[in-house]
Amino acid sequence: AMLREGIKRATQRGLSQSQLEWLEGNAEKLPIEDNSIDVYTIAFGLRNVTNTSAALADAHRCLKPGGKYMILEFSHVESEPLKSVYDFYSFNVIPKLGEIVARDRDSYQYLVESIRKFPTQEKLKTMMRDVGFKHVTHENLTGGMVAIH
Amino acid sequence: ASASASASASARGETDTRAEADASDRAVLRERILRAALKRVDEHGFSDAAVDAGLRDLKLSPASRANALGRDGSSGAASACGPGALAGELVGYFEEACDAAFHAKVVENADKLSTLNSSDRIEWLVKTRLEYVVPRLDAWPRALATMASPQNALATFKRRASLADDIAQAADIAHVDILPAELDGARWYAERATIVALYAAVELHLATDTSKDFRKTWAFLHARVRDLATARTSALELKSYVDVLARAAGLDPARSDVASAMAASALRAASRAPFAARILAPWIAGARSKP
User: What are phi and psi for residue B211, nearest 5 degrees?
Assistant: First the structure.
């Protein structure tokens, strides 16, 4: 379903089928050769992979030496008072909205809990270095609600 | 509370050492890439293409281009890698290497330099530094254009100012010119500015010189250094002349010193005009004769 959505958006933007290749695979074990890609981006997907380290290791495998890995994901807000406001909003408002608008309180409860379970900015950088990445940096957006690694 | 404070302090310490390790990693990678790119300058000139060729030689992905700049990737580095940024970085790396080698050579030849008079010293210094450019002369006009571009101009200026300082100190001109203390500061800047101008003029001449062993350029250098010496001598003569007149007229000696020094500087400034014209003439002539 997501692939269909992706293909639809690409054709809307005028990209022909021949310019892009669409694959479905497991982020922990992608059907892509070793040392074959220049850039790997993953947006709001890493949190949903069961074994984060395995996904990072697989990214390292697929990328060429000198290639770039870029992760966009929800992350942790450290500084007050933003943290308290964000926590309050996450646990009290978002599930309620999910219940009212999407009639699915549980999914949104899962969402905010999984965000808290995801590694912090520094922890994720350490995990990336452990797997073999060099020059690991991160950039916080909106005080850390989202981060680019 | 104290346990968590020390934990976060040690975590910060760890991230500091991590940051240092990362920074030196980045510097090492930048060196590797630029050195590989320098080997490709003969084919591609000092350009982004040379850096790309260098990356290919190192078997690194082209996604690594920004690593040649050696910057922390965390703040919109993609925008910093505009066209010509890599070329500028490559030329800067080459110039810094030349400056370092030149500095070492000057130190090595300190004895020889002390036997020469200040004009000959300046001539030797400028010639020696420019000889480092000779092996890359084919690529040099484009390199000069890159260095002069807005995004690279500041870095170029800093490097050239530092080189001028090196040359001025080695040439030790300060002993020849005796000015009153008030104008000493201005003289320091005037010296460096003159050297930068002289170096740039000779460098331009070199870039378009087709004579054997660049005879014409070295003759040009010799003549310009003579010009400077003449201007200085006349300025000094004028200064002492004004000084004598002032004392004869009974003026306050301190004021007359300043007055004569000012007159000397004015004369030097006036003498720059023909100097500047002579610098530009061969370059313009050369540029005009090109197809």
Answer: -75, 165
